[in-house]
Amino acid sequence: MNLRYISGIVLSMTFTLTTFSACTDLKENIYSEISEDSYQYSPGDATRQLGAAYANLKGWTDAGAGLGISIAQAISTDEAIFPANGSGWDDGGNFRRMHQHKWDATQAHVKRMWTLFYSGAILCTNVIAVIEKDGFPFAANENKDQLIAEARALRAFYYWYILDNFGDAPLVITPSSDMPGTTPRKEIFNFVVKELNEVINTLPTEKSGSNYGRFNRWAAKALLANVYLNAEVYTGKPEWEACSKEADEIIASGKYVLDPDYRDPFKTDNERSGENIFVIPFDEVFAQGFNYHLAALHGANQRTYNLQSSPWGAGAYKGTPQFVDTYDKDDARLASTWLSGPQYAADGTPLLGSYDKIGQPLVFINRMPDGIFTSEAEGLRYLKYEVKNEARSSLSNDYVIFRYAQVLLMKAECLLRMGRNDEAAKLVTQVRQRAFKNIPAKAVVTGQQLLGPSQYKYGLVKNYILTPQAKAYPSQFGRLYDELGWELAGETFRRRDMIRFGHYTKAEWLSHQASEDFRVVYPIPQDVVNANPNLQQNPNYK
Question: Which residue in 268, 336, 346 sits closest to 304, CA to CA?
């Protein structure tokens, strides 16, 4: 990320509120004898405190122990997997349980998600409470109404992730030392929608360096469209028209375009992208935490990119072979997302294996015996974000949350579900065109095709042999489901897509058997329930 974009985000991370609520039990803990009433704020503190709420987003991508939010959203789906191999990666069964849908209320990924989501939501709530006070000293370049609107939009983002992942959960919108109970999922949905609708017109409309990585009007509309997209899951009532309207307004704004190349939104200097709507800014020195490449690449690949830090063992962030097999071989997104084939050092020297393939050429193949344990060379590696030469342990690429291609695909899905198939196909074709530049005829898709079956061959894999599942999934709009996967792989959408299309718990892939329907939401972490008598655990997880 270019340093000129960092000042509003990274250099404003100091959080001075002294009554921050702990995220494990949502109970107030005092960390200083200075009280909120006696603390003297200075001009510029409003932006600095909001910066802390944004800084919390860095946890989305931290692959340490494989617990980044982006990883957790992927490895419980048919898209990606973290299998054990000769270099380790079993981690007490953490990743295996996510793949097989056997997590419980002590799962590390579940605790990590809960902590990050509520850290962000409570930070936003406290920021709003502080800067709404009479006499708060704003700097000359700070707009009180816009800062409050921005904090509310960011809080809505955190609560979207909460309602999406946990269903019924606490809704805390004022600073308090009280221990909250749970709020029904539908009420949290209504809160998120109400908050966004109330603040959208106060948010800035410009797309500029000053609000890069922050919520402007269009980022808030992209969020609202995503909330509406899964409304039927959250409330039982679909909101296709509402989702379509928000997408239309982003499209009509003219602020965003598809980048010429599929790789452009994910480059090291992707702040120049015309496609990215909302990102988490990173810098290899000043805003660290984006290190997915260390979990994906083989240790030998250190020589491929002259990395300053070695990837972890043989790596584990891999595409599910059944998913990778759905791509058209001419689709540029295949090679732009998944690293395959013989591996070489930067000077062209072939790389060799270090574990079960020690001394043999290292060749990544789209093949796994199952979803439990693989060879060090089995499985294509997730490498959607550019890894520059001599990259550090943290990358400078900004992590993409919302981009224009996804807005177009949301609009297409709404049209398809409302029976406007040919209109939907035009938008999908528009997105596909850059992936088939040399074979433009392959970019064209029809409305009838979007209604057709998925290319995904579901079923269990044992000793490399697939036993196909008798029933085909999803039950409708299978080709559109595939299009979402090809365009958005690794961008945290797959879990929501699978749930919306109805087969997250029903389909089988690798070593994932059909699971219980209650697993469409995660349990409240057990230590949180133990610490708060007003919370009750989902009875299915007891």
Answer: 346
Residue 523 confidence (pLDDT) above 90: yes
Q: Report the distance separating Cα 294 and Cα 383, nearest Å.
A: 10
Tokens of 178: 């009280």
AA letter at 141: N
Tell me what pLDDT residue 36 has: 58
User: What's the rounded Cα separation, in Å, for the pair 211 and 204?
Assistant: 8
Q: Is 57 helix (H, G, I), strand (E, B) or coil?
A: helix
pLDDT at 19 over 80: no
CA distances from 486 to 22, 75, 210, 378, 497 (A): 39, 16, 32, 21, 12
pLDDT tens digits along 486-513: 999 999 999 999 999 999 999 999 999 9
Would you say the pTM of this structure is higher than 0.90? yes
Residue 314 CA to residue 88 CA, distance in Å, equals 8
pLDDT for the residue 149: 98
Query: % helix / strand / coil in the chain, to the nearest 5?
Result: 45, 10, 45
**In this predicted structure, what is the pLDDT of residue 194?**
98
% pLDDT > 90, the chain: 88
What is the rounded distance in angstroms from the CA atom of residue 169 to the CA atom of residue 523?
10
Retrieve residue 307's tokens. 């990395």
Query: Cα(282)–Cα(506) distance, rounded to whole angstroms?
Result: 37
What does the pLDDT read at residue 37? 61
> Where do the H-state alpha helices sit in 86-208?
94-100, 108-131, 144-166, 185-199
Return the HEC string of 329-380: CCCHHHHHHEECEECECCCCCECEECCCCECCECEEECCCCCCCECCCCECC
Q: Is the dihedral of CA 368, 371, 374, 377 positive or negative?
A: positive
Q: Are 277 and 389 in contact (CB under 8 A)?
A: no
- Residues 288 and 88: their CA atoms lie apart, in Å, by 25
Residue holding tokens 């409309």?
205
In the predicted structure, residue 459 carries a pLDDT above the cut 50: yes
Query: Tokens in use for 449?
Result: 């095709």
* Per-position DSSP letters for 221-263, written without gaps between them: HHHHHHHHHTHHHHHSS--HHHHHHHHHHHHHHT-----SSTT
34: its two tokens: 């200075």
> From the CB of residue 112, how many other CB atoms can be counted at a distance below 10 Å?
21
Residue 542 tokens, joined: 């007891």
Structure tokens at 525: 């972490």
Q: Locate 323 and state its tokens.
A: 């998913």
SS3 193: helix
- Say how many residues make up the chain: 542
Q: Is the separation of the CB atoms in 348 and 292 below 8 Å? A: no
Among 178, 392, 209, 403, residue whose Cα is nearest residue 293: 392
Residue 218 zone, left/alpha/beta (φ > 0; ψ -120 to 50; rest):
alpha
Question: What pLDDT, on the 0 to 100 scale, is given for residue 25?
Answer: 47
Per-residue model confidence (pLDDT) at position 7: 29
